[in-house]
Specification:
Layout lengths: L3 H13 L10 E7 L3 E8 L1 H9 L3 E19 L2 E6 L3 E8 L1 H8 L13 E8 L3 E11 L15 E7 L6 E6 L3 H7 L3 E9 L3 E7 L2 E8 L2 E6 L2 H12 E3 L6 E7 L4 E11 L35 H21 L2
Antiparallel strand pairs: 1-7, 2-6, 3-4, 3-5, 3-6, 3-7, 4-12, 5-14, 8-16, 9-15, 10-13, 10-16, 11-12, 11-15
Helix pairs in contact: 1-2, 2-3, 3-5, 4-5
Keywords: Signal
Protein name: Protein CBG15583
């Protein structure tokens, strides 16, 4: 069932063409820890997800404000979506239609209906801290992925880590590679690592970490499954004030000093990817409850005169019917 607030907002967007913020559009999650440690909260974002799915120029705006630096993590149905790559006091992130669509794709297999739009949050502070995490709506006008642009199907990044927690970070555009693996169960996105010591590779964007890959000294090919591919798709579509493009960060860490390379490859295979939603149907399906909008062609769109005639005919028919019974 489509909720009344969603219909009201959709009407405003349709007739006025501009988003007008309303108080009930903002959901605020307060958090507080007195002696450090972690605290858990939950938030439901059904209205926000429906609105963003309906309008490609709208996005969910997540704002963090904390008295002290805090580590934030978001889980969905027992699975980690993202966590902050470093402790922070303030952050502003945007999740647009592409991000919400990716999050909801195949969700029926991992979540029950009551939890489709529920997000579990974890706040962790070293000492006493308090703050708010708010979710609202915002208009965005960012360029989408340019499918006519020439993206290299293979890339090689070089690393030199000094050891410990200090990462060596390299940036690269992931391009349409993740799109292909996300939409087609017979394609794969692989990450090939050659390193002189044990390592941890983190995938980050806008201060959020979506995925970690671990490996031992030597050569290893990490072939991403459905859940990993979905997380990479979420990362690629994440937007922030300083980065709304397709650039992502690959952070390499090793406890001992080391060096090596990371290469990513896209390839076609005959075997279908396990748990990929495309295996069950002929096209990708969003979660239950997300309305599918059918836009009319311009020539089929009713004019004001058509509406006027329709409104005039209905009362006439009612009056005629009424007089027949007199």
């Amino acid at each position: 069932m489509i909720r009344l607030p969603f219909l009201l907002l959709a009407s405003l967007l349709l007739f006025y063409g501009a988003y007008v913020p309303e108080p009930f559009h903002t959901v605020t999650v307060p958090f507080k820890t007195e002696n450090g440690g972690s605290t858990n909260e939950s938030v439901f974002l059904e209205f926000h997800c429906h609105t963003v799915i309906y309008d490609k120029h709208m996005a969910i705006k997540m704002e963090l404000e904390s008295s002290e630096e805090v580590a934030l993590a978001a889980d969905k149905c027992g699975r980690r979506i993202f966590q902050t790559s470093r402790d922070t006091k303030n952050a502003t992130i945007f999740f647009d239609k592409d991000w919400v669509s990716a999050m909801l794709t195949g969700i029926a297999k991992t979540c029950d209906v009551a939890s489709e739009y529920k997000v579990d949050l974890v706040f962790n502070c070293d000492g006493e801290c308090s703050g708010n995490l708010s979710f609202s709506l915002a208009e965005i006008r960012t360029p989408k992925l340019d499918f006519t642009k020439s993206y290299s199907p293979n890339g090689v990044l070089e690393y030199n880590t000094i050891g410990g927690e200090t990462p060596s970070i390299a940036s690269a555009e992931i391009g349409v590679l993740v799109e292909a693996a996300f939409l087609n169960s017979r394609t794969r996105l692989n990450f090939e690592v050659n390193y002189t010591t044990d390592y941890t590779l983190a995938f980050e964007k806008c201060g959020l970490e979506y995925l970690q890959l671990e490996g031992h000294k030597g050569h290893k090919v990490h072939e991403l499954g459905w859940e990993e591919t979905k997380l990479i798709r979420l990362m690629a579509t994440t937007q922030c004030e300083q980065d709304s493009k397709d650039m992502v960060n690959y952070a390499m860490r090793s406890w001992q000093p080391g060096n090596g390379t990371l290469a990513f490859h896209w390839k076609r295979v005959h075997e279908e990817m396990k748990q990929h939603p495309g295996n069950d149907v002929t096209e990708m399906v969003l979660a239950i409850g997300v309305p599918k909008h059918h836009k009319m062609k311009k020539e089929e769109r009713p004019t004001q005169l058509t509406h006027l005639v329709s409104c005039a005919i209905i009362p006439v028919i009612v009056v005629i019917r009424y007089r027949q019974f007199l």
